[in-house]
Amino acid sequence: MKFLLCLLLCPMAVFGGSFEDMINGSNCTAADIHSALVCGMESHEFTEKVMNYTGKDEVKSLKDSCDDIKACSLSYGHCAPFQFDRVNKVSSTVKIYCHLIKFLTKEFADCQKKLKESECYSNWSPFKNMKGIYTDEKACMNFYGSENCLKKEITKTCSEGDWKKLHNKMLALNNLVKQCVII
Prior knowledge:
This protein is mainly α.
């Protein structure tokens, strides 16, 4: 029921019109718009998962959501009604989160195994750091763990290259949400 209601009301709430208004004069079909709405709901659910992230065991669920969102976003990317700043920013944010998740589960997996016993790494969550808690200057100072311990742990246990890769992924995410000044 919630889905059907959203299907009818979301275009009006989000875009100020009905499906017909969105289709007329655009390069979209009703199926494209339907896909976009479904994808929007999946993106919203993904965002909730990220914000409620509590541990590394949830990464598979996040990765599965990323795969679903990537697949559905291909179906409406050509539609002019979805090419405005708010949609593009949400889409970019989700993509960067997904790149970070992919990085953590693939490229960084060996380093993660080595850091299994690290208290600093165990207490650090890349998603917790993105919850908008940056009104506190201390939260930004501890973006990479207490007293920046993550950099020391990763360079000592893994490599400088692993640290740089993680740092670059986190910078991309932070630059998009513009929460902290990180060097």
